[in-house]
Amino acid sequence: MHSHAPLPSTAATFVPSTVLPPVAAGHQLVALTDALLETVLAIENVAFSHPWSPGNFTDALRSGYHARVLMQRDEVLGYFIAMQILDEVHLLNITVSPIHQGQGLAHELLDALAHWSRHTAHAQWLWLEVRESNTRARHLYERYGFTQVGARKKYYPVHHGERETAILMNLPLWP
Hints:
A 7-stranded mixed β-sheet has the order 1-2-3-4-5-7-6, with helices on both faces. Residues 1-18 have low confidence and may be disordered. By secondary structure, the chain is an alpha+beta fold. The radius of gyration is 18 Å and the shape is globular. 27% of the residues lie in helices and 34% in strands.
C-alpha cells in the first residue's frame, strides 16, 4: 500500500486542464462583461454590414447566454455568443477583429465553444446560421466539421429591403 502526502491547501482551487477551454499560449478566454462591451461593439460595427445592435448584446448578456471574449493581454481578438436549448447549443455570433483575421482565431473560438458545449452544457449538437454569401465563414465551418442541413430563404437583411438566404449548419458533438 502506498501512502500519499496530504495535498497542499491550494489543491481545493486547482482546476484540471481537461475542463478548461483550449486557447493558444498568451490568449485568455474571458466572460463578456459590460466593461468589454464598448470594444466588442466597435469590432462588430467594423466587421459586419449588418452588425448586432447594443441592445442585441445587452439582451444576450441579460438572458445568460454563453458570451466569451478571446483576449491577448488587454486586446480583444474576437468573441462569440451562444445559447443553450436543451441538448443543443446555437452559435448566435462569432467574430474575429478584422485586424486579426487569417490567424486561426475563429478556429480557436470554435474550439472553446465546442469544448464548453460538450463538457459544461452537455450538448449533443452545435448549430449555426451563416449568410449564403459569406463563403469564407462557410468554408471555415465546413473544415471544422459542420454540415449544411437546410436553408432559410430571405432570412438576413441585405440592402434596400432585399433579403439573403441563411445556410443552417450543425455539428454533432459526440460520435
